[in-house]
Amino acid sequence: MIDPRAQLPLDQRQAIGAAGLAALLTVARCNGAPTAKALAAIRGVRDHLLQIDCDLEALPPISPDQLAERVRGVNPDPQWCERILRGMTLVALLDGAPSPAQQQQLEQAAGALAVDPAPVRTFGQVMEQRLAMVRLDIARRGFIASAARATLEQEGLRGALGVARVLLRQEDTAMAERYRALRHYPAGSFGLAYAAFIDRNGFGFPGELGGPPPPVMHHDCCHVLGGYGTTAAEEGAVLGFQAGFERVDPFYVLMFGLAEFELGIGTTPFIPGERDALDVERLFAGMAHGAQVSVDLIAAIDPWDHFADPLEQVRQRFNVRPRGREPEWPAPIMD
């Protein structure tokens, strides 16, 4: 299991980071010169996740066997190999149209590193346009399944019925009224901030006709707690934030962002797929931000236990530190 909050001593981070960055560059060069977005992703990994000094232009190509030898020689924990394979796959997906040469490089890396090749299979599904399988992998391995489980554990039958009614396009008046009541929570409270987020964006509350299923509330609370807006770039950033603290495979949390906002693969009925709309620097900055959080905000807390408390107090409770930039919002639609 990958723990994004795990850190290596600086000397190990420098050594593994240099090998990993060389691997990211190698896969990005399979089709020729890397794209600007692939290079931005590699810089994002270096600057936000590794936080090391490394001249990318000075890194030579690295073979899968060389990569495995260098990484295991520094630290045998398999999660560092897992991280590198996932980074290579994300970079390949950001480097224009996926190619057989990239898939071969990824398959060889997975074999040499002796790690789960699931990300490579997902890459192949994108390349072959088997989009139903991509959506299924994202749904069952990423934050959607985690949020759904949390809703069922916290709300039981009420939560299950809420999801069913959304799928059947039915209103749940009692659930909707419970959420609307948050508009009357105390000034400065987490609950009022969540209600203001919903109203500002013109979203519906769970239970309202056309509103999202209850599990989406957990994701929206991450926007509020982390200080993220709702442009495509900000949605990518908040998914990075989630990938930093969730107890699921971070690759598939980030893949949700790539599918929705970069590759044009709509994975939910609530957000139409877009192309080339991700800001990958924000994606990895968000992941570094989320890695500081002390709990899984999707699965390990029930927001209703904290809605009455001051927002800043809730942030301190879970070590959600200031993000360092203001949230951004879509331009209002003019009549």
Characterization of the model:
The protein is mainly alpha-helical. The protein has helices at 10-28, 36-50, 64-74, 78-93, 100-113, 118-127, 131-141, 143-167, 173-180, 190-200, 216-226, 232-245, 250-261, 280-290, 311-317. The protein is built from 15 helices and no strands. The chain is globular.
Shape: globular
N- to C-terminal distance: 49 Å
Helix- and strand-based class?
Answer: mainly alpha
Name the helicity range.
55-70%
Q: Treating each run of at least 4 consecutive H or I residues as one helix, how many helices?
A: 15
**How much of the residues is beta strand, in percent?**
under 5%
The value of Rg in angstroms is 20 Å
User: Can you count the beta strands?
Assistant: 0
What are the low-pLDDT stretches, counting only 5+ consecutive residues below 50? none
Please tell me the overall pLDDT.
Answer: 90
**Succession of helices and strands:** HHHHHHHHHHHHHHH
Main beta sheet strand tally, sense and closure: none
Instruction: Tell me the number of structural domains.
Output: 2
Q: How do the helices and strands line up, and which of them pair or pack?
A:
Elements: H1 10-28, H2 36-50, H3 64-74, H4 78-93, H5 100-113, H6 118-127, H7 131-141, H8 143-167, H9 173-180, H10 190-200, H11 216-226, H12 232-245, H13 250-261, H14 280-290, H15 311-317
At a glance:
The protein has 15 helices and no strands. With 335 residues, the protein is an all-alpha fold. It has two domains: 10-128, TerB-like; 143-317, no CATH class.
Task: Output the keywords.
335 residues; mainly alpha; TerB-like; 2 domains; 15 helices
